[in-house]
Design a protein that fits this description.
single chain; 76 residues; mainly alpha; 0% strand
């Protein structure tokens, strides 16, 4: 059983009464902003994935160098 045109109009009228015309347009604006933000995030993610990863300096990340520095501070 499909809803008739009158049933659809009654439901639409109830929604307008409950939420008001301004509230519905405000919610649709928020949905539009969310979609735009989502699309921008996707394009930013694709742009970041296309860039090569930065090279890490091997001396800066060496844990043995940090251990010797802390040992020198505690000994002296």
């Amino acid at each position: 059983m499909q809803p008739s045109i009158w049933q659809i109009l009654i439901v639409a009228a109830l929604v307008l009464i409950l939420f008001g015309r301004g509230r519905i347009s405000e919610m649709m604006g928020d949905v539009g902003k969310g979609i735009r933000s989502f699309k921008q995030g996707i394009t930013d993610e694709e742009a970041n994935a296309a860039k090569p990863a930065p090279q890490i300096d091997s001396k800066a990340g060496d844990p043995s160098a940090e251990t010797s520095k802390t040992a020198d501070k505690t000994a002296g």
